[in-house]
Amino acid sequence: MAATPEKLVKDKVKKLLDSLGIYHFSPPGMGLGRAGIPDLVCCYNGKFLGIECKAGKGKTTALQERELDAIRAAGGFAFVVRETNLEELKEQLTCLK
């Protein structure tokens, strides 16, 4: 089975996180967890990170936006990453170091 475009973005993000030594995991989906949780939950240098991966023109849902906003309100870092802004994510993560 071929990887979806979003899976390809997730794989690139995971590779970036690994290269920077950032702890991360993917919460279970398919109704097993809370709706709207980001694709990747991370901890870097004592900072909580939530990263939502999208491909192409994919948009975040209202539930995803709610969770990302809650992470930011709690002092965490929340980011929506696509094929086009992987370098921006890398720069943001480097600033957190």
Short recap of the structure:
The chain is α+β, with helices and mostly antiparallel strands and 97 residues long.
What's the helix and strand layout?
Elements (H helix, E strand, L loop, with lengths): L4 H15 L3 E3 L14 E5 L2 E7 L8 H12 L3 E5 L4 H11 L1
Parallel strand pairs: 3-4
Antiparallel strand pairs: 1-2, 2-3
Description of the molecule:
The protein is of the alpha+beta class and 97 residues long. It has helices at 5-19, 62-73, 86-96, and strands at residues 23-25, 40-44, 47-53, 77-81. The longest helix has 15 residues, at 5-19. Strands 1-2-3-4 form a four-stranded mixed sheet, with helices on both faces. Strand 3 (47-53), helix 2 and strand 4 form a beta-alpha-beta unit. The radius of gyration is 13 Å and the shape is globular.
